[in-house]
Amino acid sequence: GAVLLYVGAYFVSKEKTLTPGELMSFVVAAGLLQAPLRNMSQAGVQLQRISAGAKRIWDLFQIPYDALSIDQEKLLESDKVVLVPQSPLALELKNVSFEYPNSNKTALKNVSLHLDIGKKIALVGKSGSGKTTLSLLALRLIDPSSGQITLGNKEAKDWDLLDYRSYFSYVSQEVFFFQGSIRENLLKVAPSATEAELWNAIELAQMKERVSALPQQLDTHL
């Protein structure tokens, strides 16, 4: 920058080939040129990142569909209404093992478990012991590497995926509500539920007294 100003001043004062205004215009233009040049130097880095990301996406698209992927696609394309299960069913795991892809570690090995109707159990264990994996298997978000999972003596893979998952409920540590009434929130889960079934669900959640005390009860806006 100093050299540029020195040379420019020489041409202005000695050679008289530049006017002060032309020199200032040139200096400003040269300064504005620096940012695009720096951006151009980063273009190569950005292209490499884009190329790496595109390759990973392409590799994902090349993974062949397994049975669960096919069933999941059918579920997403289906316009079937969620039906409320009429009666509880027992869940059983028989010699179930699971190993995550590209991992030499077996998350679960030969696990057998029978969940009786009406019983409460607690799944406890240290981090990495397989609690989450077992839950994902039960919901059929993943399929076991070996072994069998049955619901009501019917293998999980033989169930329609929507019907199978309708037997499961999940209550997170953080509660999420959609804008709308209590009724509308409940109907998002079970669109065909009757008034009695909605109140039964609220009673099971131990919220009947609180909801009954609200001015508009089920139609109270959240």
What is the topology, as strand order, of the major beta sheet? 2-1-3-4
Helix content: 40-55%
Q: What is the mean pLDDT?
A: 81
Number of strands: 4
Low-confidence stretches: none
- Estimate the strand proportion: 5-15%
Q: Ends: how far apart?
A: 63 Å
- Quick one: biggest sheet? 4 strands, antiparallel
The secondary-structure class comes to: alpha+beta
Quaternary assembly? single chain
How many helices does DSSP assign?
8
**Shape descriptor:** elongated
Gyration radius, rounded: 32 Å
- Topology as H/E string? HHHEEHEEHHHH
Overview in brief:
This protein is α+β, with helices and mostly antiparallel strands.
Characteristics of this structure?
alpha+beta; 222 residues; four-stranded antiparallel β-sheet
What does this structure look like?
With 222 residues, this protein is α+β, with helices and mostly antiparallel strands. The chain has helices at 2-15, 20-61, 67-77, 131-138, 161-165, 182-189, 195-204, 208-212, and strands at residues 91-99, 106-115, 146-151, 154-155. Strands 2-1-3-4 form a four-stranded antiparallel sheet, covered by helices on one side. The radius of gyration is 32 Å and the shape is elongated.
